[in-house]
TrEMBL record:
Its cofactor is pyridoxal 5'-phosphate. The modification N6-(pyridoxal phosphate)lysine is found at residue 66. The gene is lysA. The active site is at residue 353. Keywords: Amino-acid biosynthesis, Decarboxylase, Lyase, Lysine biosynthesis, Pyridoxal phosphate. Belongs to the Orn/Lys/Arg decarboxylase class-II family. LysA subfamily. It comes from Natronocalculus amylovorans. Pathway: Amino-acid biosynthesis; L-lysine biosynthesis via DAP pathway; L-lysine from DL-2,6-diaminopimelate: step 1/1. It is an enzyme of class 4 (lyase). Its EC number is 4.1.1.20. Homodimer. It holds the Pfam family Orn_Arg_deC_N. The keyword Amino-acid biosynthesis applies. GO terms for biological process: lysine biosynthetic process via diaminopimelate. This is Diaminopimelate decarboxylase.
Length: 447
């Protein structure tokens, strides 16, 4: 591992570990709100924002909303002073509803559906400082057709990516951005029709000490492009080098040394100025770093069985609650918070009828009994956001914590809500036959 840009291991305020959550509090929450249950610590979200602001003091910092869109999280991030980077019309809607002014909203259009552009241009009419980042020259035409002539940033494909899994390595993936070789020409054309404010690239998600050299190479290429654009007489406001800063998931993994990452980023970018000699801002857009270690997922064990070669704990959370293990083979720390004592290798498997619905294999945890609560750590980023209703399983509730108080941030979906979008053969909304699960039923512990 490249240890140059990671902090020394051991207890470190830069990474909140699962073991630092208070077990009796988590157990009480699972009794009150049922399971599965996401818990988000807003105080930790605010701390993470402060650490980013301290490490990148002169940069524009945009929170990548896709990592966690909960209203309370967005409000916390807004109050901390970060902007919002939105990947869709829905994220723009959520950000405006959470109080972000238009000048703090950056919409990154990825193959944008017409409805997204229609919506964002409508929002722009009342918020002319909103910025649209485009990854293809024809998106510029589609914006013009809608009467948009506002702030535009060009997403560049720098040809170098990074990230914790090949499915999240973005910087060289064909679908994202204009190839860097053509970017200066597209920028020139865009500057003739729009207020051209920036260039943008994103290496990928979950960058660790191992692949920081790729992040640096991306930043170096972006610095070079920015100077070329300045030479063409175009005044940029910023160079956005994306997000992707990783956090430790494995218990003894050291956190990134954010100050060292910031220094390396600045060095790789070099000096970038407008044609008249003004400084061009560095911008970053972290998502995971802001929310990952602020979240825990609680799940109840409903089945314990000795399989042929492993002990299986069946839980009420699975791949529809937390997709990352099934999709990326991602590791999340897991503890049995209902008991200590003898530790056994356990395979934790969810209730979904898919072989991939396994949260971990042969993980040493305190030997489970039916009714125990497992806590799954570092679940605040891309956890709830990637939840689905596959297998017709309602999405879970989420509780938020701030200053010693817990409250419901999002209620659980109910069985009766699963069919609300459907119509019958005469076009009328289908009658829902199931009643809501009562709070009592949903919350009882299944012993
Ligand atoms: C354009 C863009 N910006 C920012 C992010 C945030 O990434 P992360 O959550 O890894 O910081 C992503 C996600 O990978 C992204 O696609
Ligand atoms: N969903 C991914 C991160 C990808 C971010 C989207 N560009 C993860 O959970 O690791």
């Amino acid at each position: 591992m490249n240890t140059e840009l990671v902090a020394s291991s051991g207890k470190n305020p830069e990474a909140r570990r699962l073991s630092e959550w208070t077990r009796p509090e988590l157990l009480a929450l699972s009794e009150t709100y049922g399971s599965p249950l996401y818990v988000m610590d807003l105080d930790r979200v605010a701390e993470n924002c402060q650490r980013l602001l301290a490490a990148f003091p002169a940069a524009d910092i945009r929170y990548a909303v896709k990592a966690h869109t909960g209203r309370a999280v967005l409000e916390t991030v807004r109050e901390a002073g970060l902007d919002a980077e939105c990947a869709s019309a829905g994220e723009v809607l959520r950000s405006t509803e959470a109080g972000f002014d238009g000048d703090r909203i950056h919409y990154t259009a990825v193959n944008p559906p017409a409805e997204d552009l229609d919506y964002v241009v409508d929002v722009w009419v009342d918020n002319p400082e909103l910025t649209v980042t485009v990854g293809s020259a024809d998106t510029l035409d589609r914006l013009s057709e809608r009467g948009f002539d506002g702030r535009v940033c060009l997403r560049v494909n720098p040809g170098v990516g990074a990230g914790h899994h090949k499915k999240v390595q973005t910087g060289a993936a064909a679908k994202f951005g204009v190839p860097i070789e053509r970017a200066a020409d597209v920028a020139r054309a865009a500057a003739a029709r729009f207020e051209f404010v920036g260039i943008h690239a994103h290496a990928g998600s979950g960058i660790s000490g191992d692949d920081l050299s790729n992040h640096r190479e991306l930043v170096r290429r972006m610095g070079e492009l920015a100077r070329k654009i300045a030479d063409a007489g175009i005044a940029l406001e910023y160079v956005d080098v994306g997000g992707g800063f990783g956090v430790p998931y494995v218990e003894d993994e050291p956190p990134l040394d954010l100050n060292a990452v910031a220094a390396a980023t600045r060095k790789a970018l070099g000096t970038v100025e407008t044609p008249t000699g003004d400084a061009v801002q560095l911008a970053i857009e972290p998502g995971r770093y802001v929310v990952a270690d602020a979240g825990v997922l609680l799940t109840r064990v409903n089945t314990v069985k000795q399989a042929r070669d492993t002990l299986v704990a069946g839980t009420d959370a699975g791949m529809t609650t937390l997709l990352r293990p099934a999709m990326y083979d991602a590791y999340h720390p897991i503890e049995n918070i209902s008991r200590d004592g003898t530790v056994t290798p356990v395979t934790v498997a969810g209730p979904i009828c898919e072989t991939a619905d396994v949260l971990c294999e042969d993980r040493p945890v305190a030997t489970p009994e039916r009714g125990d609560i497992f806590a799954i750590g570092i679940a605040g980023a891309y956890g709830y956001e990637m939840a689905s209703t596959y297998n017709s399983r309602p999405r879970p509730a989420e509780v938020v914590h701030s200053d010693g108080e817990y409250r419901l941030g999002r209620r659980a979906e109910q069985l009766s809500e699963l069919t609300t979008l459907e119509t019958d053969s005469s076009g009328r909304a289908v009658q829902t036959l199931t009643g809501n699960i009562t709070a009592d039923k949903a919350h009882r512990s299944d012993q």
